[in-house]
Structures are given as structure tokens and as C-alpha cells.
Design a protein that fits this description.
The protein is α/β, with parallel strands linked by helices and 137 residues long. 44% of the residues lie in helices and 16% in strands. The protein is built from 6 helices and 5 strands, in the order βαβαβαααβαβ. Strands 3-2-1-4-5 form a 5-stranded parallel beta sheet, with helices on one face. Strand 4, helix 6 and strand 5 form a beta-alpha-beta unit. The longest helix is centred in the first third of the chain and has 16 residues. The protein is globular. The two termini are 18 Å apart.
Length: 137
């Protein structure tokens, strides 16, 4: 089983480190999976670029950690964090908006095709990147 932990890069309330506790929680899940004989190469993390160094310090050795920029969302999904959040929670994205982001996310994990994604927010871009992906949030 290959697991993707996805922490969206959206900066909210001008707090770029606000999602650091999400990395702590993802680390707890990852440790449990590693204790159940899942190998580190079966775990990948996509984290906000602002938390990349924190993720490297916090997450288990041997897992894949990639970063995505807040600006990537702004350049693809909306003008600001509020617009993007509204589209997320009302499910009003156009596929033309999500597809470029999905392609970038898939490109971050070249050679890794997750079976399951764990995320703390709605992430329609993951379903576009991998249509048969099971996403839990």
C-alpha cells in the first residue's frame, strides 16, 4: 500500500506556519504505518513550501517529502485564499482550473502512484491527478 499525505500549501490568515500541527499529526499516522511493516519508500508527503524544512526535521527518515508553493494555488485556482477556499468547500471548480494543478502534483511524485491519500482538507486536485485514488479527509 502506498500512502500520500497531502497538506495543501494555501496560506490562510497570513500565517505561513499555521499548518505545522498538520505535519505533526501526519507524522503520528506515518509512524503507525511504519510500525505495521509498511516501508518508508511507500510513504510520500506533499507539504507547503513554507514548512519544508520543518517537515524534514519532523517526518520519519526514508519517506519522500516534496513541497508545493502557495503561489501555485494562486496561479491556478483563484485570486486569493478566500476565493480558493470557497471553491473548495462549495465544489465549484472547473476542470480546466484543477487539471494544471493536478499535473504539477503528479509531477512532484514521478514514479510514485498512491493508493490512498490522507489530507486535512478537501483536495479535488488529487482525484484529478489519480482518478482511482482513495482520499480520506
Amino acid at each position: 500500500m502506498r500512502v500520500l499525505f497531502y497538506i495543501e500549501p494555501l496560506i490562510e490568515l497570513d500565517q505561513p506556519l499555521m499548518k505545522a500541527p498538520w505535519i505533526v499529526q501526519a507524522n503520528r499516522f506515518a509512524k503507525l504505518l511504519l510500525q505495521s511493516d509498511i516501508q518508508p519508500h511507500c510513504l510520500s508527503f506533499i507539504v507547503p513550501e513554507t514548512l519544508l524544512s520543518y517537515a524534514h526535521k519532523t517526518l520519519p527518515e526514508g519517506v519522500t517529502i516534496r513541497a508545493i508553493k502557495h503561489e501555485t494555488f494562486l496561479n491556478t485556482l483563484g485570486k486569493n485564499s478566500i476565493d480558493i477556499a470557497i471553491k473548495r468547500y462549495t465544489d465549484t471548480y472547473e476542470s480546466a482550473e484543477i487539471t494544471p494543478l493536478a499535473n504539477q502534483i503528479r509531477g512532484l511524485l514521478t514514479g510514485f502512484r498512491p493508493d490512498i491519500a490522507l489530507t486535512f482538507s478537501s483536495a479535488p486536485e488529487l482525484q484529478v491527478a489519480w482518478p482511482d485514488l482513495i482520499t480520506l479527509h
